[in-house]
Design goal:
This protein has about 260 residues and is of the alpha/beta class. The chain has one domain (about 5-185, about 225-260): 3-Layer(aba) Sandwich (Rossmann fold), CATH 3.40.50. The protein has helices at about 15-25, 40-55, 65-80, 105-130, 155-170, 190-205, 210-215, 230-240; strands at about 5-10, 30-35, 55-60, 85-90, 135-140, 180-185, 250-255. A 7-stranded parallel β-sheet has the order 3-2-1-4-5-6-7, with helices on both faces. Helix 1 (about 15-25) packs across helix 8, helix 3 (about 65-80) packs parallel to helix 4 and helix 4 (about 105-130) packs parallel to helix 5 (about 155-170). The radius of gyration is 18 Å and the shape is globular. The termini are far apart. The relative contact order is 0.14.
């Protein structure tokens, strides 16, 4: 389905991003991995993806909070593959605190990684997409691109911003064979979500078990976590030729959360 295409997925060494690159590699796409982690484990992952799916896989550890690091990664990927046909902006961080106690450094980092990084990758990827008159950009947003929750001011602001950015770029490139969409997962039990459970428990003065039951899954009528595989499948479809008429869409995949 994606043979001959190249996919760059930020934050793809674990969690949702890893699920997405695995799915895209299985479809035949060459892969640019990005993210932090143990160097030996990342190299094992790179080799495994390449061998299993018979695609080219490279790794770039660009810091998504630094525009110059993002620019370097994009330039290297374009030099290696000629174009980034499939760009998935997935990298994200979280911090939970009341707004009047929210650390300024945490606000700046969340806006940089969860929002501004997508601007830097998209602006670098678009020229080659325009030249080829084909491209797919998928921004991994969140149900928090559509609704808010307390104690997550920076994250909610960034994800709302991603929704607006997605729509704007989609309109700009609509006649050039390029689609731009956002997927909005509800709670997926990734390392990012697991890490925020203790912080949320502290902020609300409740147990971690109560956070899962009464805060996280309370929002999702299905009472189940969304799976990585479900998010990856939706992303892969948006990257396909069959999704050519879907653009500027903000697509929830959150167990009915935003139907409230």
């Amino acid at each position: 389905m994606l043979k001959g295409r190249t996919a760059l997925v930020t934050g793809s060494t674990s969690g949702i991003g890893l699920g997405i690159v695995t799915r895209l590699a299985a479809g035949g796409a060459n892969i640019v991995l990005n993210g932090f982690g143990d160097a030996a484990e990342i190299e094992r992952l790179r080799r495994e993806l390449a061998a299993k799916h018979r695609v080219s896989v490279v790794y770039d550890g660009a810091d998504m909070s630094r525009p110059e690091s993002i620019s370097s990664m994009m330039q290297k990927a374009l030099a290696e593959f000629g174009a980034i046909d499939l760009l998935v902006n997935n990298a994200g961080i979280q911090h939970v605190a009341p707004v009047d106690d929210f650390p300024v450094a945490k606000w700046d980092a969340i806006i940089a990684i969860n929002l501004s990084a997508a601007f830097h990758t998209v602006r670098a990827a678009l020229p080659a997409m325009k030249q080829r008159r084909w491209g797919r950009i998928v921004n991994v947003a969140s149900a928090h691109a559509l609704v808010a929750s307390p104690y997550k001011s920076a994250y909610v602001a960034a994800k709302h911003g991603i929704a607006g950015f997605t729509k704007t770029v989609a309109l700009e490139v609509a006649e050039q064979g390029i689609t731009v969409n956002a997927v909005c997962p509800g709670y997926v039990l990734t390392p990012l979500v697991q890490q925020q459970i203790p912080d949320t428990a502290k902020a609300r003065g409740i147990s971690e078990e109560a956070v899962v039951r009464d805060v996280l899954l309370a929002a999702q009528p299905t009472k189940k976590f969304v799976t990585v595989e479900e998010v990856a499948a939706l992303t892969a479809f948006l990257c396909s030729d069959e999704a050519a008429s879907i653009t500027g869409a903000i697509l929830p995949i959150e167990g009915g959360w935003t139907a409230h």
